[in-house]
Amino acid sequence: MKTESQPAVLQLKGHISELEAELAEQRHLQQQAADDSEFLRAELDELKKKREDTEKAQRSLTEIERKAQANEQRYSKLKEKYSELVQNHADLLRKNAEITKQVSVARQAQVDLEREKRELEDSFQRISEQAQRKTQEQTEVLENLKQELATSKQELQIVQGSLETSALAEAKWATQIAKLEKEQGSLVNAIARREEEFSALQGQLESTQLKLSSTQESVHQLAKDQRKMLLVESRKAAEQVIQEALRQLEEPTLISCAGSADHLLSTVKSVSSCIEQLEKCWSRYLACPEDISGLLRSVTLLAHLTSDTIVQGSTTCLRAPPEPADALTEACKQYGKEALMFLTLLEEEGTLENVNSTAMRSCLSKITAISEELLPRGLDIKQEELGDLVDKEMAATSAAIETATARIEEMLSKSRAGDTGVKLEVNERILGSCTSLMQAIQVLIVASKDLQREIVESGRGTTSPKEFYAKNSRWTEGLISASKAVGWGATVMVDAADLVVQGRGKFEELMVCSHEIAASTAQLVAASKVKANKDSPNLAQLQQASRGVNQATAAVVASTISGKSQIEETDTMDFSSMTLTQIKRQEMDSQVRVLELENELQKERQKLGELRKKHYELAGVAEGWEEGTETSSPALQEAVPEKE
């Protein structure tokens, strides 16, 4: 039995060997198909990613082209588009790195598959060894082999189907790869063109930046030239103001009223403060040329204050004795020249040492010394009575103003009752302006009282007001003198207005009286604010009231001039009926009359000068000055020039 079954066993073993060989081959084909399928699947994933990257790159390229066109249209977004191009380029590099990383991952997966393949081969080897050991179980082995064979056939069919599908997919992906390679070439060319356009835009950007830098330098230089021009023009305007004041100093006939030493001292104090402020502004300007507004304001203020000082000095000279008047005039001239020299130095862009105000301050010191010598030195009254006298004089001044206002109203009523036509119109205008002036003076007196009360309350401490007035006797005497002058001026102006309304007075006399009362109120303002706090609201009200008096005075002068013109127009001669000989005779008579009037005018001017000198001398004696003084103060001797 064993011998008979030996061929069958050998045949079965041979068949088993064939089946094992076929099984090994099928396993090999299966493994190869699995490897190919995995490789194709990896390539498919890679191609999908490449396609997605290509689509993203295409979209990015489209966006880049749109932004490049926008960059060409709008230069202002050039830098932003440049950043976007750089970002896109960085994204492409980042995506390339990601693709390289994915390839590395795929290679690692392939290594893992090879390792699994070796493990499977080892397992298959162990199975074969077990099959050899179990040859005695042939039936079971054959059944197992048949089953395995059937399974292998099924798997083979599946693998063959997979191979066919893989072949179709391979052809399809080969076509897509070729298409993508073509698109990649187009993208490379487009990127090259964009890089060229980017280089061109970068060149344009650099050129524009150079132009912008040049423009900024031009604008900076233009602003510097304009600031310098403003300073030069401001300096020229200031010089013109000072030169005009010096010209008026040479022509004292242009001064229509006399000034006071108190007012001149107040103006000199303001000039000193202005010079300090100007030096500070000049220092700031040298440190920062853009800060020129303060310097321009200081130059303009210095010019006007200098002009006021020169004019006030000239008007103060009209009430001064000859020797102090000459000294004060010369000091004002010298100060004007030094101020012009100081303004000339401002044009030079040097250091702060070039701008020196020592000469100006020296001239101001001389003016101050002379003005202090011209101040009233005392009244023939007891110091303990000064406080009562101030109140009495202020009350008397208010009463004089009220009386003058009542008289003007009475004159206006009489004029309306007895006059008509042009004369009534002229009288109403003149008396109305005089009434406004009296009202403005009344407001100024009230403001002066309030300021004096504030000064006394803030400065007396524990002392009484009378003791404060006695302690500050010179200031008190200045208030008394100014109050007397205001009351007297109001009375004189009303008398002059009465004569003008009646037709027996002169318009010029009324204008002179209005100027005189304006000067008296200015003296009262100067005396009131000597000890005042510059930030005091009462001082601001007093200054506002002073401006109101000046405006009312100008209105009186304007109404007087206008009324005089109207009256003269009604008295115009009729030359229509005169012959040539008569007209010639009248012309000769008019020329003779003009010469006579000019001669009389010259004599009257000389007489006016002598009267003012005599008035000053008498006022000085009445107010405590020493008569017959042979020598003047050191300040006066220093300021008076040597005469030929």
UniProtKB/TrEMBL annotation:
Residues 9-197, 585-614 form a coiled coil. InterPro entries: HIP1_clath-bd, I/LWEQ_dom_sf, ILWEQ_dom, Sla2_fam. Residues 621-644 are annotated as: Disordered. Keywords: Actin-binding, Coiled coil, Cytoplasm, Cytoplasmic vesicle, Endocytosis, Membrane. Signal peptide: none annotated. Pfam families: HIP1_clath_bdg (PF16515), I_LWEQ (PF01608). It is found in: Cytoplasmic vesicle membrane. Residues 378-619 form the I/LWEQ domain. GO terms for cellular component: clathrin-coated vesicle; cortical actin cytoskeleton; cytoplasmic vesicle membrane; presynapse. GO terms for biological process: actin filament organization; clathrin coat assembly; endocytosis; positive regulation of cellular component organization; positive regulation of transport; regulation of endocytosis. GO terms for molecular function: actin filament binding; clathrin adaptor activity; clathrin light chain binding; phosphatidylinositol-3,4-bisphosphate binding; phosphatidylinositol-3,5-bisphosphate binding. Belongs to the SLA2 family. This is Huntingtin interacting protein 1. It comes from Rousettus aegyptiacus.
